[in-house]
């Protein structure tokens, strides 16, 4: 039903079109973002408010007048009771409680306290050497390719974040290809308006991922390592901190968020730099600018395009009244192209002084826990790639991911050229 309402809305110029998007709009969504922004800081669509205005999105994300998690519907009570009844048996969804992304208040603070130490900027900086080593090993494998043309997403952009997060979470090497398949299958679970066949594929993938996770956690329980998940299992088993559902939800989110988003940063970064050789030349001349270039890639092609919040009381955003219970879709990608904040917002400029003001990692209490790690993976990963293959070039056949919330390349064929 949501799909039908949204598709009709999209045809009638409803701002909700941004949430469903046909393939053409998905390839070039930014004109629609501009149209929505020009019409006001917050627009009322058929199912929710929509904003592509930087100040409004930031205000909503930071405000205590809004909560995260699914909106209330006439069926919410029933769904909550079913979830309670099936606790410990049902399949956990990345954007439904008890996922970190979908809870607030003390519950959220408790989950975050348990895992944030491992992902703090300082802790992650200590991993820079490991990330560099992993990138080097993957590039060695690429260099040993028997073909001169490869799919960069398959051979590098996916494998770097997957390897790094799997090492942090103690995922055995043999299980990683399987985890990748589950992740790819489950990624559209973030999108609204899935068709029945899309929904069943997502559901099967979520179930398979959940079953694997259960086995993996049991393995760690019997034979704990020094990884973060082993620590969480111990924290669960002493009965004080996490229930079994909370543990599976947190572990699953960390793993999936760890590679499903950063793959898009590395893929989009590669494509953007190959299409803007002048910008690449700037980075070759001044490699200390790579950190800022990663911020500009994040701003220009937000890997997570949108998130949403629900008003917990009657409130207002940039002067627009929003009633309790109303849903606001904050288009992070649209906020990142707001000319009130970014001069010439559609220009890709690795020297942009305020690129870091993007909202690609969200804002407020749910600000991305893995931001420091993603930044290092982007910087090390892209720099190492372009240093190893100075003649890297795009080849025909690039294909976008079909997902709406996650934006990136499904396939990015490149010619490797000579290597250094
Ligand atoms: C939350 C984006 C990489 C773990 C978020 C949110 C965004 C985001 C937009 C907040 C959603 C909201 O406010 O509703 C990204 C992007 C990444 C990235 C663009 C890469 C370029 C990572 C990595 C990890 C990670 C590598 C690995 C640990 C998380 C977690 C949350 C989160 C656990 C939930 C935080 C909370 O709700 O308190 N991310 N992420 N992310 N991210 Fe990331």
From TrEMBL:
SUPFAM superfamilies: Cytochrome P450. It comes from the Bacteria. Its cofactor is heme. Keywords: Heme, Iron, Metal-binding, Monooxygenase, Oxidoreductase. Pfam families: p450. Belongs to the cytochrome P450 family. This is Cytochrome P450. It comes from Rhodococcus antarcticus. The lineage of its organism: Bacteria, Bacillati, Actinomycetota, Actinomycetes, Mycobacteriales.
